[in-house]
Design goal:
327 residues; alpha/beta; four-stranded antiparallel sheet; 9 helices; binds iron/sulfur cluster
Length: 327
């Protein structure tokens, strides 16, 4: 049986805003096996980044707060760890790649010294050995060693993301969290960076949580997928099952709104409406105002999670036999 590296149970995270309390993540549960890549997919505001920040214990408090739940990493509940314990885990056992590498890079330090500093913070390396390892890491991500003495602004966006990857992998973390790592890049550079991440993940045997809104990226690198909507996971499946037999009306809507090479369609069908206001989520199923199958019961009853024969977990009343899907 595969070993679980990350297990999130009933996580709830709220933010206090002037408009009231926002449930950014609401009763979220999923797990990730060792060596696997899990895609966390959803529109902006679905709660993906808050989930990642919760794992890292970096939810800004205030205004954010983890109000309930458990996050097990290798069997240890991260939410019970003291700050200094978490500091040892962050960057060492769990590291993160951000959408904009400038967020994680110090603009006034050379990239080589930044990577070396991360290495020395977590491992007992001499300054000289850390500098050498930093150069090795740059080499590994396709950046010539002689550029170690340059500053972040001297690199292009794609190259900066490579530096971010080198830094994140420099302590050989067991879990890598990548938050929209290729979104800010040109399409061709995106493909190169994704290819590099895939290669290094295999080489380092790292488990990965990949946050994205792009199903193309998911198809490229993920083993499993969790689709998030309004702070909840609405569908969880392996990548093949999700792409061949999506179940949740929201997931189906996501697929209908991307171009297909196999089918000729006159127009794409975007999901009608927008994400609900998080301070005022609809009662019942939060997707009901946008769902083509919604019935009266969906406005009042919140769906449970149903596990189907093919292993998919889905949160929709259709699969509880309470709503018809029109077939
Ligand atoms: Fe649509 Fe109802 Fe299922 Fe929600 S519970 S996704 S509204 S059919």
């Amino acid at each position: 049986m595969s070993e679980t590296i990350l297990n999130i149970k009933s996580l709830k995270v709220e933010y206090n805003t002037q408009e009231g309390s926002v449930k950014a993540v609401d009763n979220l549960s999923f797990s990730l096996n060792k060596g696997e890549t899990l895609g966390l997919v959803g529109e902006t505001g679905a709660g993906k980044t808050t989930t990642a920040l919760s794992i890292m214990q970096l939810v800004p408090n205030p205004p954010g707060k983890i109000v309930d739940g458990e996050i097990y990493f290798n069997g240890i509940n991260l939410l019970n760890q003291k700050n200094d314990e978490m500091r040892k885990i962050r960057g060492n056992k769990i590291s993160m790649i951000f959408q904009d590498p400038m967020t994680s890079l110090n603009p006034v330090m050379t990239v080589g010294s930044q990577i070396a500093e991360t290495i020395m913070l977590h491992q007992k390396f001499s300054k000289k050995r850390a500098a050498e390892k930093a150069e090795e890491m740059l080499d590994l991500v396709g950046i010539p060693k002689n550029r170690a003495g340059e500053y972040p602004h001297q690199f292009s966006g794609g190259m900066r993301q490579r530096v971010g990857i080198a830094m994140a992998l420099s302590c050989n973390p067991e879990l890598l969290i990548s938050d929209e790592p290729t979104t800010a890049l040109d399409v061709t550079i995106q493909a190169q960076v994704l290819e590099l991440m895939k290669k290094l993940k295999e080489q380092f045997k790292t488990s990965m949580l990949l946050i994205t809104h792009d199903l193309g990226v998911v198809a490229e690198v993920c083993d499993k997928v969790a689709i998030m909507y309004a702070g909840k996971v609405v569908e969880f499946a392996d990548v093949h099952t999700l792409f061949t037999k999506p179940k949740h009306p929201y997931t189906k809507g996501l697929f209908n709104s991307i171009p297909s090479l196999d089918e000729e369609v006159d127009r794409l069908k975007p999901i009608k409406g927008t994400m609900p206001d998080p301070t005022n989520l609809p009662r019942g199923c939060s997707f009901h105002p946008r769902c083509p199958y919604a019935q009266e019961i969906c406005k009042v009853q919140e769906p449970d999670i149903t596990e189907l024969e093919d292993g998919t977990k889905v949160s929709c009343l259709i699969y509880q036999g309470l709503v018809s899907d029109g077939k």
